[in-house]
Amino acid sequence: MALVTTAEVCDANPQLIMSGELRALQPVFQIYGRRQVFSGPVVTLKVFEDNVLVREFLEEKGNGRVLVVDGGGSLRCAILGGNPVVQAQNNGWAGIVVNGCIRDVDEINGCDIGVRALASHPMKANKKGIGEKHVPITIAGTRISDGEWLYADTDGILISRTELSV
User: Fold this and answer.
1) 165: Cβ–Cβ under 8 A, 6 or more apart, which residues?
2) Which pLDDT tens digit goes with each residue over 44-53?
3) Alpha-carbon distance 19 to 132, whole Å?
4) For residue 113, which of 61, 64, 149 has the smallest C-alpha distance?
5) Binding site as annotated, residues for Mg(2+)
6) How confident is the model over 39-78, as pLDDT tens digits?
7) Binding residues for substrate
8) Are 1 and 166 in contact (CB under 8 A)?
9) Which helix (H) or strand (E) holds 59?
């Protein structure tokens, strides 16, 4: 989103908001990483206190996509850490949104990638590889499907069914 804020997108598109084509996530996420503004097509993942599938996705080429992880809102461990975020940055992911916790905050804050998460937590996740890829998820009061578009800045996070022409 070149110099157009999420607030401006909302102001300019009341019809898309009313129809549900454009939705805002509830403001529950903390901002991490050096890239405070990011956008891209969404890839969804649903896990619970397990980060194997998160790591697997971020080992792939990102091609400007945004990984949106429904971690069940767990505040008992981190499902994303510094090493996978460095890998995501190097593989061309635009951002990562985690409905759960992260750790290695100083390392993540040094990366040129956008990261949003509920909080930080020092404990690591399980490594069982259990979860669901490319499924519709609901986080922060919003249903998100694979292939939709995510737009994030310091005002919030928007989900659009299609890429917005801004």
Assistant:
1) none
2) 999 999 999 9
3) 28
4) 64
5) 104
6) 999 999 999 999 999 999 999 999 999 999 999 999 999 9
7) 81-84, 103
8) yes
9) helix 52-59
